[in-house]
Amino acid sequence: EKKKLKGTDCPLWERLLQGPAGNIARMFLMDREAEEISSDVAQYIKFSLPLLETILQRLNEEEEQEIQRTIAK
């Protein structure tokens, strides 16, 4: 189900109302102007949180390496 929050809604409260089960209900915040979830985001929706954290850690490491290479030039 896709639901647009009102300006007065609190995303955390809305998620708490859905209950504790993360496999039953999930919430994704989107830009106000966005109509659909982009394909870039959609590819990660079904991944578990530990896997997403690992991906993020790897991306951060790659970014740091790139920064160090740029500084070394």
Automatic annotation (TrEMBL):
It comes from the Eukaryota. It holds the Pfam family Nore1-SARAH. Residues 41-73 form the SARAH domain. One of its GO terms (biological process) is signal transduction. This is SARAH domain-containing protein. It comes from Eleutherodactylus coqui.
